[in-house]
Amino acid sequence: MAESVLTEYMHTPKKPRLEKSSGESNSTSTRKQLRKYDPYDDEYIRQYILYYYQFHKSEGFVIDWDKLDFRFETRPIMDPYRIAAYSTNDELIRGVACRAIAQHNADTVSVSSSGSRIEFVDHVSASYRWCAGILYWVTFWARDLASSNPEPKLYQANVRLCGQTFCEIYIFRLKPTDEEIAAVQVDPPPPLYDDDPELPTILFTATGPGSGYMSIPEVSFTRIPAEVEPVSSP
């Protein structure tokens, strides 16, 4: 049984390109190969806690990927690794954002004669998750030409795409402020791997108040040994 506390990750993550409101983007980010999850590795559990709280507080949009080097369910779209064979990451993210905008504009017209006329300016960041299609979280600059103040603003869209025609929007909004994100209350993670008798169950307990960026609480974890020995491959 092992126990540890998340302490060293409470800081404000980088916010690349948030000041940029126009022009072509030139991503030069690099990313090391991600490691496979390991429930016996304390560092993996610490990073999982950070990922869990940042994901739930920001609804998936603001995650400090520079501090994560394990594979989690959601992953960043970040050079030099492409997730599309025939387009760059910038082209892919731009395409996702534009499809979400087009769908949102069409949806608002269907419920209001005025609707919105949001126009894409530039993307900031994106992550994805495989599902029935691909689920994306995209942050981007855009302007609403139907607004009395059509200056570029930061928007966020959580959208599922499948093929060339299917587009389902779950979230489309102006980016919340850091204070609004930090104010979101999130319960400690539920037990991890409790449904797999060959893996240890990880239990989490909040042990201190929230602090730092996003006001993430101190969290301890306890590892309960696996119920059965895993079957080794021949």
What would the keywords be for this entry?
alpha+beta; single chain; Nuclear Transport Factor 2, Chain: A; globular; 234 residues
Which helices and strands, and how do they pair?
Blueprint: E1 3-5, H1 42-58, E2 75-76, H2 89-111, E3 118-131, E4 133-144, E5 153-162, E6 166-174, H3 178-183, E7 201-211, E8 216-224
Antiparallel strand pairs: 1-8, 2-3, 3-4, 4-5, 5-6, 7-8
Fold and architecture overview:
By secondary structure, the protein is α+β, with helices and mostly antiparallel strands. The protein folds into 2 domains: 3-14 and 35-80 and 186-224, no CATH class; 89-178, Roll (Nuclear Transport Factor 2, Chain: A), CATH 3.10.450.10. It contains 3 helices and 8 strands; from the N terminus they run E-H-E-H-E-E-E-E-H-E-E. The chain has a 5-stranded antiparallel sheet. Strands 1-8-7 form a 3-stranded antiparallel sheet, covered by helices on one side. The chain is globular, with a radius of gyration of 20 Å. The relative contact order is 0.18.
Helix fraction, binned, reads 10-25%
List how many beta strands DSSP finds. Answer: 8
Euclidean distance between termini CA atoms: 29 Å
* Largest β sheet strand count, sense and barrel closure: 5 strands, antiparallel
Strand content: 25-35%
Number of helices: 3
Please compute the radius of gyration using only Cα atoms.
20 Å
Mean pLDDT: 83
Instruction: Outline the low-pLDDT stretches.
Output: 1-29
Shape: globular
Strand order of the largest sheet: 2-3-4-5-6
Structural class: alpha+beta
Order of helices and strands: EHEHEEEEHEE
How many structural domains in the coordinates? 2
Region (Disordered): 1-33
